[in-house]
Amino acid sequence: MxxxxxxxxxxxxxxxxxxxxxxxxxxxxxxxxxxxxxxxxRDGKDHKITDLLYLCNAHRTYGVSCEEILxxxxxxxxxxxxxxxxxxxxxGEFALLREKLNKGMNVDELVSRGEYFTARLxxxxxxxxxxxxxxxxxxxxxxxLDREKTYxxxxxxxxxxGAMVLPGFYGRIPTGRIRLMPRGGGDITGALAAAAVGADVxxxxxxxxxxxxxDPRIVKDPKPIREMTxxxxxxxxxxxxxxxxxxSILPVxxxxxxxxxxxxxxxxxxxxxxxERIDETQGxxxxxxxxxxRRGFTILTVMKHNMEQSVSLSRALTILDQYHAKxxxxxxxxxxxxxVVSTAALGDAVFEVIADIKKNCRPDDVDIKDGxxxxxxxxxxxxxxxxxxxxxxxxxxEAGVNIRTIAQGADELAIVIGVEEExxxxxxxxxxxxxxx
Length: 437
Ligand code: ASP
Known about the structure:
CATH superfamily of the largest domain: Acetylglutamate kinase-like
Bound molecules: aspartic acid
Number of strands: 15
């Protein structure tokens, strides 16, 4: 059995967190590929090292000295080293960094030092070899990850060392320059490493005991989701839940590797296990897996008596596409259709869009309604089960919430409703109370 484990910024924020990581790693000999983010916040008032490095760069850009911030960063790493009794040469490394900075180091390389130093310290603390992401994570000249090359290099490093610590979030382009991934990219490195070595599981250690069924700011003490499918995770992420984004899990999903989200501060908790398929004869029998939603949508309704719907609809879609406003949902009526679009994406183009629709579709009327929220209930167990949507709509209706749009994917994995923004939280609570048990 082989586990690739990734620790996020809060899991490596200080010496105390490093100790927890060591206990987790050493309690299971299968955990042999360790990926780390840069040290994150130790408490609410603290700063992430990555943010401080970006701040350093902003100072440089405006010709202001970044020495003070650099010293703060150096001090954070020195504290971790000293509290853990390590010998990593922080002073020498920072002298080198300053020298490079003076010569004009690029921003990606500067910011990548957060994960680099964190991983160097972690490797020494765990007594494992450090493998630099710059030597094994490759981007093409187009800036896209070269996954095959990356897989080969990580697999080769693993074959050589048998266990290792790898910094997340960065790699190299063919010219040798360091390139960063998007923010939170340590998750991608973890997934790449798991896929490269064919791990049996990819453990993603963070500071929550798995994914919760609903946003805890809206629902009090929502239950954690013990297991879910990759399809459900994708729906929840798309609908705005703060879970791992699709591109960061693609490498493991493709290779059929399960993903386990765990809590460094509560290592006994099983967290959330995500797999391609779940044996439905076991586990909990919950109707809904999770609930998520987003505010900030507009409904554009186009009305025309006896309209040739397909022609008008395709024209309206083309117009929205021209203005780069992605259509989230479409509902069709006999003499009308409604398009749900992100209000921000429409922006000021809304007037042009309406004018173009009037010109090209010749409708009787076009109506526009802002302030819409979309709420999705996601669950593989809703699939092909009669009566689910009926129960859902009844509960929402009884709470006095008016449903403005309804959409269900063809795979029946999610039911998405559009409600007034002021009803957003009520709709989520009703769904949770009625169906989460
Ligand atoms: N340190 C980077 C960030 O703060 C990447 C990561 O944490 O995964 O975004």
